[in-house]
Amino acid sequence: MMEDKQSAEPVVADVHKKITAAFTAFDYESNNTVDVREIGTIIYSLGCFPTQADLHDIIAEVEEDNTGFIALDKFLPVMTKVLLEHKFPPIPEDQLLQAFEVLDKEKKGYLVPEVLTHYLTQEGELFTQEEMDEMLTAFTDHQKNLVYYKDLISQLAADPGI
Amino acid sequence: MGCGVSKSDQFHKSSGKAIRSAVLIQRWYRQYVARTEMRRRYTWHIFQSIEYSGEQAQIKLYNFLGYLMDNFTPASNERNLISHIFRENEVCRDAEWERYFCYKNIEVPEIYSGPHLTFPLTAEQAVGLVEAFRNKKQLHSRYVLQLLLETWKQLRMLPNINRISTCHSKEITICGDLHGQLDDLLLIFYKNDMPSLEKPYLFNGDFVDRGKDSIEILIILFSFLLVYPSEVYLNRGNHEDHIINLRYGFTKEVLTKYKMHGKRILKLLQKIFSWLPLATVIDQKVLVLHGGISDTTDLAVLARVDRHNYVSALRPPKKRYQSTARMSVDSDTDEGVWSPNKVFQRQKSLTSLKAINRDSFMNRSLQDFSDRLKVDEVDELEISRRRQSIFNPAISRLENETASSSESVNSLTVIEEWKQILDLLWSDPMNQDGCVPNEVRGGGCYWGPDVTEDFLNRHNLQLIIRSHECKQEGYEFCHNRKVLTLFSASNYYDVGSNRGAYVKLGPDLVPYLIQYQASSMIRELTVRQSAGQTERLALKVLREQLFAHKSDLICAFKKVDSNNTGLLCLNDWASAVESVMHLGLPWRMLRCPLVPGKTNGGMIDYHEWFNELAIKGANAEHLDQSLLETLYRHRSTLETIFRIVDADNSGFITIEDFRQTWKLLGAYLKMEITDDTISDLVVTIDRNQDGSLDIEEFMEAFRLTDKKSRLERGRSMFMGTAADLTKLEGDPNI
């Protein structure tokens, strides 16, 4: 049941297919290039959790000389390496929980939107206002106007995604 | 996305720990957003693939029926079942029309609480109609017929191509597909005011089908057309076509809402649709039409055609006989067309159709079909011409009739004209240069940026505004911003799936776009919930499609699984599925939601997978599984055939006709359906045993449920209307 392939390892072929599939979803001109602004989405959708800094490094490596486009043939080897080396592994649930609890000093189990907004738009790799609004719309319990992060984490973890 | 250096805040000294936590949360959230975006894209892709393949299926069915018409003896029962849809309107002279559609003897009862209309219509009445429909009233059939008659008179005076100007500093508002979604029209009127002398509007086709208020939309549009004939413009869309309406819900909607007079209303609408203008040009610079263009589109030709001859864009009009006989220009009795001196010899009856290669009808490319038809006295030129045309079966038929008559010039012109109209109503833009037949939909072309450039230059235009395709933001530019797609039905696939948009165009001819989304539900669902719901619906629809192809899939799986282990690796599974389904979907990405449950060491147990899906029906247990599968896969086609057979649109067909329908379906699918099988089906459905069958009841009796899915609502979305989807709104947690 193995496909014919050049490489000796079935795993690599598998990875290539996965990357190509994600890439072509954004290849609107059907010419094996994507807009550089979509690269983040593509990499995330492959199950990686890079930081913004990591993303910038990758883009620097693969972008076609300031054209604003990235070609599949450059992207493929770089991304293959990333996936095979598990460079940007997912964040374990407990780690995520801890992160929220750091912000929730009184350990109430929830955060008010204002506190979350303060941290995420002022610290770390800052959210834009748009990102913050979207997150609050998606994650806030509208009746109580609170973010119950514990429930959120377990709900989203149960959702396998792609 | 922000990328920054962490700043320390003057008032709250954040610890390193807090900063690291923030980074973690940001990383996690961005990843989540990206994954959601990917899923949204493939959800979209699922709906679109299935929608277009549905349109393709309708055209294939229509061609199949046309083929039957050509090849059956005139007297055969089967042919009589379906011949009526190929007949042009029998009533053609004006006086006869008025008599046939006389509304004067229709009484409006005292208890009727809807609007009353008097003619000529006033602006207050038009506004009153909008209010009445907002309050869920229904217009009485007497007034509907009266309105339609007046509309017909008005439309007949209009040219094929409206030419309007934005002088007097008037901005014109242009709307795309509405598809029976009254909420969107109401929202547009709320945001932009209703049509008036100061507020001209242009509606770009596809007013009906799919949504549940198609007739109300038509009534509103026609009313404003009558009140403001110089300010309201309508273009025809590909759904302004009674053949399409049979499948996509408009026919059903009218017959349900107007039980007594629905048939008359539909008949009159057939005429009205054919009289709708084909396109509009604004300030001689901006072309607005529903579908698009092809490399042969010529506005001069389009301006000349007798557009009302094209009642349905799916078939060419009958040949005109200039002199003689029993036929007037528009009429088309069977004797005239099927007389013995025609080239085609009709010998076969239904039973001998088993010999037909099923592939003839199932090919994605309608071009292939033409190769299988007999060609007698045709030269090379004709053959190559035929290869380029899209609706080859009908064209071949027409061309062969032509070969034997001296009116070849006329008929070839008819074919040219017909292609022009088809392209106009059905084409889609593509990114690559060139112009190729639109095989996905089955009609029109895909046209590229070079064709746009050439067309605009030739006609001295600067912009094409078209609709026909759903876009997530309600609009989309392409071809170097020379083509604008405009779609005005928000939440088209599901609540939250897309916005709608309309365009305002002033004398500067720069399009100004306004977006909206009509649904009170949107505000109550979180973004996450509504996206998840749409995705669940798409997956449900997709599972149904997969189950409907179970036999073919198992066949394909077994080919790869040569050792018969029952297991497949992901790659093999994905390619096998695509080879059967032809939907072009990212199956690898969809594996998780589609094949839940533990993996067998990374392998997929396909037998177990199919066991998870099951067809459950009221009395279905005694029926053959493969028959059920057929039934399910071709539900839409089956229902369409029923509605065609139900010539008087009563919603019932006789048991005898029911048998004939199954025979037809059997021939279409190249399947043996025995009399016993049919009897079993009859027993299942004809509960009151009165010799006639309720079509609705029959279709409801067979359902598909995924054992794991809690969504046990009935029909696949492309059978029902948006009303069925709104039933899902009740529980956002499903």
Automatic annotation (TrEMBL), chain A:
Q: Which domain of life is it from?
A: Eukaryota
Q: Which InterPro entries match?
A: EF-hand-dom_pair
Q: Which UniProt keywords apply?
A: Repeat
Q: Which residues form a coiled coil?
A: none
Cellular component GO terms, alphabetically? organelle
Q: What is this protein called in UniProt?
A: EF-hand calcium-binding domain-containing protein 2
Instruction: Specify the species.
Output: Zoarces viviparus (Viviparous eelpout)
Automatic annotation (TrEMBL), chain B:
Gene Ontology MF term list: calcium ion binding; Hsp90 protein binding; iron ion binding; manganese ion binding; protein serine/threonine phosphatase activity
Please name the GO terms of the biological process aspect recorded for this protein, alphabetically: detection of stimulus involved in sensory perception; negative regulation of MAPK cascade
Give the enzyme's EC designation. 3.1.3.16
- Which SUPFAM superfamilies does this one have? EF-hand, Metallo-dependent phosphatases
Keywords annotated in UniProt: Calcium, Hydrolase, Manganese, Metal-binding, Repeat
Coiled coil: which residue ranges?
A: none
Instruction: List each copy of the EF-hand domain by range.
Output: 548-583, 633-668, 673-708
Membrane-spanning residues? none
InterPro entries attached to this UniProt entry: Calcineurin-like_PHP (IPR004843), EF-hand-dom_pair (IPR011992), EF_Hand_1_Ca_BS (IPR018247), EF_hand_dom (IPR002048), Metallo-depent_PP-like (IPR029052), PPP_dom (IPR013235), PPP_phosphatase (IPR051134), Ser/Thr-Pase_EF-hand_contain (IPR012008)
The record's catalysed reaction(s) read: O-phospho-L-threonyl-[protein] + H2O = L-threonyl-[protein] + phosphate; O-phospho-L-seryl-[protein] + H2O = L-seryl-[protein] + phosphate
Q: Please list the cofactors this protein needs.
A: Mn(2+)
Q: Name the family the entry cites.
A: Belongs to the PPP phosphatase family.
* PANTHER family noted in UniProt: SERINE/THREONINE-PROTEIN PHOSPHATASE 5-RELATED, SERINE_THREONINE-PROTEIN PHOSPHATASE
**Full protein name:** Serine/threonine-protein phosphatase with EF-hands
Record the organism: Zoarces viviparus
